[in-house]
C-alpha cells in the first residue's frame, strides 16, 4: 500500500453544485518528489467568490482549465504509475478533500482508486498524543513548507508533518 497525501481547492462547499478548482497529491516517501497537480474547469455555473479566492484564481482563469475527465484520467494514470499496491488517501481535512476526489473520480473516471476510506492527519496526531484536543498542534510543529493554498505546497507540508510524526514513532508502512 502507498499513502498519498491529497489537498483540494474548490469554488464552493459541495461537489456538483459547485466545482473543484485544483488539487495536489504527493506520494508519502522521504523524497516528496512524486507530485501531481490538476486544475479542472468548472462543472457548474454556481460559485462563491470567497471560496474561489482562496485558490488564488479568478473565475475567468478557472474557466480556462482542463476538462475534468482529462484531469481525472491523468490522475488515475499517475496513481497507477507511482503507487505500489493500494493507494491510501490521507489529508488534513479528510471529509472535505475526499468528497471532491471521490465525486470527480466516480463521475468523470472509472471509480475511485482510493476506495471508500482514508486517514485524517489530525486524528493520527491526536491518537499519538492520546489527546483529542491537539487537533491543530501538528500543523504548527511539523509543517516546513508554507501552507499557502497552492495544493502541491499544502500536500508537501502535510507530508513533511507525517514524516516527522513517523520519526516520533507513528507506524506508517513504507510505500511498496
From TrEMBL:
<keyword id="KW-0378">Hydrolase</keyword>
<dbReference type="GO" id="GO:0004527">
    <property type="term" value="F:exonuclease activity"/>
</dbReference>
<keyword id="KW-0269">Exonuclease</keyword>
<dbReference type="InterPro" id="IPR036397">
    <property type="entry name" value="RNaseH_sf"/>
</dbReference>
<dbReference type="GO" id="GO:0003676">
    <property type="term" value="F:nucleic acid binding"/>
</dbReference>
<protein>
    <submittedName>
        <fullName>Exonuclease</fullName>
    </submittedName>
</protein>
<keyword id="KW-0540">Nuclease</keyword>
<dbReference type="InterPro" id="IPR012337">
    <property type="entry name" value="RNaseH-like_sf"/>
</dbReference>
Amino acid at each position: 500500500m502507498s499513502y498519498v497525501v491529497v489537498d483540494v481547492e474548490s469554488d464552493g462547499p459541495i461537489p456538483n453544485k459547485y466545482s473543484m478548482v485544483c488539487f495536489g497529491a504527493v506520494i508519502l516517501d522521504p523524497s516528496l518528489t512524486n507530485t501531481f497537480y490538476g486544475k479542472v474547469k468548472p462543472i457548474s455555473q454556481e460559485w462563491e467568490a470567497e471560496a474561489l479566492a482562496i485558490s488564488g484564481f479568478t473565475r475567468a482563469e478557472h474557466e480556462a482549465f482542463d476538462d475534468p475527465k482529462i484531469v481525472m484520467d491523468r490522475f488515475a494514470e499517475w496513481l497507477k504509475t507511482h503507487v505500489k499496491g493500494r493507494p491510501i488517501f490521507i489529508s488534513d481535512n479528510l471529509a472535505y478533500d475526499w468528497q471532491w476526489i471521490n465525486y470527480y473520480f466516480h463521475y468523470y473516471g472509472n471509480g475511485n482508486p482510493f476506495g471508500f476510506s482514508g486517514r485524517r492527519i489530525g486524528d493520527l496526531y491526536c491518537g499519538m498524543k492520546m489527546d483529542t484536543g491537539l487537533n491543530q498542534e501538528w500543523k504548527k510543529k511539523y509543517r516546513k513548507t508554507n501552507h499557502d493554498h497552492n495544493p502541491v505546497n499544502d500536500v508537501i507540508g502535510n507530508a513533511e508533518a507525517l514524516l516527522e510524526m513517523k520519526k516520533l514513532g507513528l507506524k506508517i508502512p513504507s510505500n511498496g
